[in-house]
Design a protein that fits this description.
By secondary structure, the protein is mainly alpha-helical. It folds into two domains: 109 residues, Cyclin A, domain 1 (Orthogonal Bundle); 122 residues, Cyclin-like (Cyclin A, domain 1, Orthogonal Bundle). It is built from 14 helices and no strands. Helix 7 runs antiparallel to helix 8 and helix 8 crosses helix 9. The radius of gyration is 18 Å and the shape is globular. One of its GO terms (biological process) is cell division.
């Protein structure tokens, strides 16, 4: 349920979400224990997952939950490179079952994966991931936090749509793995405001996000750097967000040019 529908309980709901987001954080150093994997392979997998996610027109929340499951699983289990796509497929399947009214059919996911893993293998791996995650599937994502912050600006559609793009971009960089979803939402929203030149981070923004602006500066700088070269950091997301339904967010950012993006960096 969207907390905005039960306004009298919003403070308690978001306090609980802030507790749960910390509990469900993956280990940002897990790649040190993966023998065959690297952060490069993670980016390639996410690029593919974005395309599959888009193919089924799934919710944005589903994608973020998928990557949370994937990173938490890899925080606990070391896998060979030839099982990474299987882990991503299962993570998307489980996230879809949690968030969507109807999840993609396993046979379709198998087909989109080039039939590298038959449905029976995906079902078997699904059980393995559930056990590795201890059946604890309710990790809060950034979207509810983003909606809460956007109240300050009367849910301005331009700021919020661009922020959705920026929040998705954070999925592609491992430096955000250990960052709570509430902070990811605040980083994305403040970066959107900067890119649109839409004003200061006010006391209200700080209240509804839970973050002072200075605490967001490091994350915003990483995000702005990622936006400089989308073909190297998040090509699939760039292609998705260049369409009119997303207000051509990615092409708008690219149109600003490198000088503008770099001028928005916070000084250390």
């Amino acid at each position: 349920m969207d907390p905005s529908f039960v306004s009298e309980y919003q403070a308690e709901i978001f306090a609980y979400k802030r507790e749960m987001e910390i509990k469900h954080l993956p280990d940002p150093t897990y790649m040190d224990r993966q023998v065959e994997l690297s952060w490069h392979y993670r980016v390639r997998l996410i690029e593919w997952l974005v395309e599959v996610h888009d193919r089924f027109d799934l919710l944005q929340e589903t994608m973020h939950l998928c990557i949370n499951y994937l990173d938490r699983f890899l925080s606990k289990i070391s896998i060979p490179i030839d099982q990474l796509q299987l882990a991503g497929t299962v993570a998307l399947l489980l996230a879809s079952k949690y968030e969507e009214i109807q999840s993609p059919a396993i046979a379709e996911l198998s087909f989109l994966g080039g039939d590298a893993y038959p449905p029976s293998r995906i079902r078997q791996a699904e059980i393995g991931m559930l056990r590795a995650l201890n059946y604890d599937m309710g990790a809060p994502g950034p979207m509810s936090f983003l909606r809460r912050i956007s109240r300050v600006d009367d849910f301005d559609i331009e700021t919020r749509t661009l922020a959705k793009y920026l929040v998705d971009v954070t999925l592609c960089d491992h430096r955000f793995i250990g960052v709570p979803s509430s902070m990811v939402a605040a980083v994305g929203y403040r970066a959107s405001m900067l890119l649109l030149d839409s004003g200061e981070w006010t006391a209200q923004h700080e209240h509804y996000s839970g973050y002072a602006e200075y605490t967001l500066s490091a994350g915003i700088n990483v995000l702005l750097t990622m936006l400089e070269q989308p073909s190297q950091t998040h090509q699939a997301l760039f292609n998705k967000y260049k369409h009119e339904q997303f207000m051509e967010s990615s092409t708008y950012v690219q149109s600003l040019g490198l000088a503008k993006l770099r001028s928005l960096h916070y000084s250390s």
